[in-house]
Design brief:
Pfam families: PD40. InterPro entries: 6-blade_b-propeller_TolB-like (IPR011042), WD40 (IPR011659). It comes from Psychrobacter aquaticus CMS 56. Belongs to the TolB family. The protein is mostly beta strands. The chain has a domain at 19-232: Neuraminidase (6 Propeller), CATH 2.120.10. Helices cover 4% and strands 47% of the residues. It has 3 helices and 26 strands. The two termini are 20 Å apart.
Amino acid sequence: MLKTPIKSTINITSSTIVIATFSVLTGCQTLSNIPTANTVNTAISNPLTAQMSVPDRQGHIAYVEEQGVGTAKISTLYSIRPDGSVRQLIDQLNGYIYAPAWSADGQMLAYSKQAPREHPKIYIYDRKSNARHLIVNAEGSNLSASFSPDGQKLLYSSTVGGNADIYEMHLSNGSTKQLTTLPSTEVQPSYAADGKSFVYTSDKVRAGRPSIYRYYFGTGNAVPISTGSYAASPQLSLDGQRMAYLNGRKAAVMTLDTGQITNLAETGLDEPARLSPSGQYAVYPTRTSRVSGQSGGSLVIHSLSGNTSYAISSQAGGVVRSPVWGR
C-alpha cells in the first residue's frame, strides 16, 4: 500500500484551473472490481487490434464518462482494453473527475476528483490492491498529475495565491517542491520517459494564449516547443520522438525532430490526443458515437502509420473525456 502523505502545508487558494479559461475519500479504501459488458467487439470488427504490439494490445485505456450537468453531474472513471473488452469501473462520484495518468508500469493511475463545493484532490488507484489513496489534499485546485518514470514522484499543478504552478512530490514521504514561480499560469505537466525533463502548458508570453514548454531538471530552465498556434496538454512518447497535444481545438501529434504536425480531429470537446505505449497509435474522444447503433461519445483509436482508426462507444451514452493509454 502506498504511504498517504500528510496534508500539505502549502497555502493554496480555492480557484479552479481549467485550460479552457485561457480561452470523498481519504487514506486508503478497497474498491469492488466491477467489470461491465463490452460495447463493441473491436477485435473482430477491425484489423488494427491484431496488428498492435503486445504493450499496446495488452495495455489499458483509462477514461472518464460524464452524465448529467451542473449539480447533477455524475463522473465515472473506467479502464478498458484497446479491443473494447474488460471495461472496469475504477471510481465514480457526483462531481468531476479529471486527467487520469498511468504510471510507467501501468500498475497505478493518478487522477483528480472534485465533489460539489470541494476543491479538486489527487488520488492514486493501485491496480494490484484494487485500492485508491488520497495523495494531494491541499486547499486549491490540484490537477494534472504525472508519474516519474520510476514511479517514486508525482508532478502536478496547484494554485498558490490564485496562481497556478507546478510541483513535484516524493510519494514515499509527501515532501513537495515548487518548480515554477512565474506570475503566469503553468499547468498540465508530463514527465519525459528518461525523467530528465517534463513538458507543460504556460501562458507566460500572452495571457490566455497557452504554449508548450520543456523544463529541464538539470538546469531548472524551460524552453518553448514551437507549435505555431494555441497549444496545450502535451504528452511525450516513450521514445521521445513524438508529442501528443491539443493544437488549437484539434487533437494532434507532432514529430519533434521535424516539427511535422498531424491533426487527427476536432473532437468537439477541446481534448488532446494521447499516445499508446509504442507511440504508434493515438487515442482521443469524440462527442458523438462513431459506433453504429450506439449513443453518446466514443474513444477513437488511430494508427499513426496507417492513417486508419476505429471507435469504442461509451458505456452508458455519456460524454467521453480524457482517455490515456498505459501498459
